[in-house]
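Hey, can you fold this one?
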Amino acid sequence: MAKVALLIGVSEYEPGLIPLPAAINDVEAMQEVLQHPEIGGFDEVKVLVNPQRQEMEEAVETLFGGRQRDDLVLLFFSGHGIKDEEGNLYFATQNTRKTLLKSTTVRARFVHDVMNNSRSKREVVILDCCFSGAFAEGMLARDDGFVDVKNQLGGEGRAVLTSSTSTQYSFEQPGADTSTYTRYIVEGLKTGAADRDEDGKISVDELHEYAKSKVQEAAPAMKPEIYAIKEGYKINLAKAPIDDPELKYRREVEFWVESGKGEISDAGRDVLDELRHNLGLTSEEAVAIEDKVLEPHREYQRKLNRYKERFIKEIQREYPISDSTREQLKRFQKVLGFTDENIALIEAPIIAEQGPSPPPVNPPPPRNSNFLQYMGACIIGVVIGGTVIYAIFARNISLPLVNSCAKENYISGDRISLGEEILLKKDANPDKEAGVKAFANGDCKTAIDKFNAYRVANRTDPEALIYLNNAKARQQQEKLKIAVSVPIGTNPNIAKEMLRGVAQAQDEVNSTGGINNGKALEVAIANDDNDSSEAQKIAQQFVNDQTILAVVGHNASEAAVPAAYEYKNGKLVMLSPTSFDQRLSGLSNYIFRIVNTNNLAKSLSDYRLKTLAKTNIIICVDSESPDNKWFADEFTKVIKQANYNINPTPCNLSDSVLDPNAMISQAISSKADGLFVAPYIDRIDKAIEVARASKGRLQLFSSPTMYTQQTVAEGKADVNGMVLAVPWFPQAIPNNPFVQNADALWKAPVNWRTATTYDATKAIIAGLQKSNTREELQKVLHAPGFSVDGATGKIEFAQSGDRKNNATCLIKVQPKPGTADQYEFAPIPPCNFN
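Sure. Predicted structure:
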């Protein structure tokens, strides 16, 4: 297995493209960390500076040619990117001329084709591109400000990281040796700070999250992106020290700086002084580390003051500000890397001091924005000692209306709906279609009538019930909004199971008087397809919609973990009801989990050890499902501690060439007597194939993922006797009102995903009863005295965000009484619920 890299930096250009001197420093900095034996450990790192087009194409083709499947191949480019009128992306070379675009640049499609033809299945592309001003001739007026990197460079087994996909942001900071993005990429690798899970390895997704958070601390408008498909996220790029004193100190500093919003509190200073002493660091070493962590925050403050000074001068010169001055300020904003929200919060207090009739602050919204509508700054209240200003920005602004059902502006096709469009496309009839049309037009009475009519014949559809309650909430006017994100496009059955939990909790609270002083609960539904990039985009939309107070979701780790970083950075509460990925544990004060893997895995392992004489277990897990890998690791740990055997036969459910029959034969020949399967949610069929190949010769075990109707409907006798650990089962808590209400509401059985999603929503509702701001909500959920009774028992959270005393229940597949070939899940008593 080889590790090879090509680092390209283009700093000198033909007239028409501005020089980028930092590009050369970028490749040198990357070369240093990649070649370092204790960091990158790359076998070969080639540097290419200011190449001509042909030289660059030959180097790229050489990089990816002749590679083996397990080779890690990295391409880094620092320089100008250019778009043509069709949106195609090109990389500028030293001899690039915008009048001869195709013959003097390297097309992204060329790079894409070369990567597709490579045998390597571990490819990483890092683009620190400057798009600002780098348009093809005559394009500027027509450009939409977005560069479609994903479709032009993405692919299976590949991760593409970009400094930005927008044409509007700056490339480098004045006086800096390296560009902003590369600086933090290198810092994350060099210091080991990008190792978020502290396992001694820095994966692509960890490096992206570190660099993104640092970049946005200094330049909020600059939005680094990652495009990867499943295994692409977990490509390991570098090593990180585990017990390094400087890294331990740095992580503690980052905690206090983040919690102090850019400053270290007195309490933080006490902690850091004691830690420095314990770790044996000198004062100089500690100050150097703190300066590095505080650098982006100080840079942000410096730029904020620069803009503030300029705005004060302009408003003193002319009041109100003219359109030409506003345009000049917008250009300054772009160079500083500020968002419209940043600018409004700077300007509003200054405008308020000018008198009772301040000029409008209304810069045009970004063209073709998917989620942000700039609404200016609202000046509210005058109190002794000053005026407090709040700027409101959101996808849908909830302001007091004369008619609460007045028509609003919705964004079609943004994967989010409050009731204006059907996301569950297969669950529709004329009544439901008429209901969403009426909702979109602001006719809530008709919408309520149509959704009620639809539900008479379609009781199992949770989307319609949520929309019905949203329409009623609109009529009531007083309401609080949360959101839920589920995989509607890729797994509609799982999506509906989760939506039923949210819908039931919403229906219960709204039908019993609402929250606090009669505020109804409104729910926005999003479809993320369990896709990481879609989940991130949706999370960004939720963060920017200030009316959304919390999010229930996401489903699988592939969606939940990338989205969680967005919620962490945006300080929006996320309660994950179904993901049991350990990376969510302790990630942020704003991230919570309803299901804790450790208790479930231990209960399953203990059952096997105490009840079944199975001493040689095959572990068949999906390597592309991090949450199931965590579960399998915990299951395996308990077995090893009891000195039992894990069968050495390899079994990866995401391996396209896996032959279940051959694998089972090999395992049985090595004395296997048990089989543990833990598939990704979209590959349950592959797990069933493996179980079928065992032909009843092996005792079957599984993670909660297999608790689906698909398992018993398709698996039938092949999965008979399979034992699963789950966080809930209908008969687990006698006389549980959740089960009774669910039966009445849906006229259909529900499973653990419905129960845990219901509990996540119940926890949010209980928190909103005490406070209805984002920051206060997370504090309420963390409070020692917080608890709420849910479908799975009492819900309380540890400081890590994990649920305390996680409920567990073992179930097994057995024949359904009175049937010839039907199977069902049945509990193995006793279930452990708090």
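The longest helix spans residues 283-317. Let me know if you want another pass with a different chain boundary.
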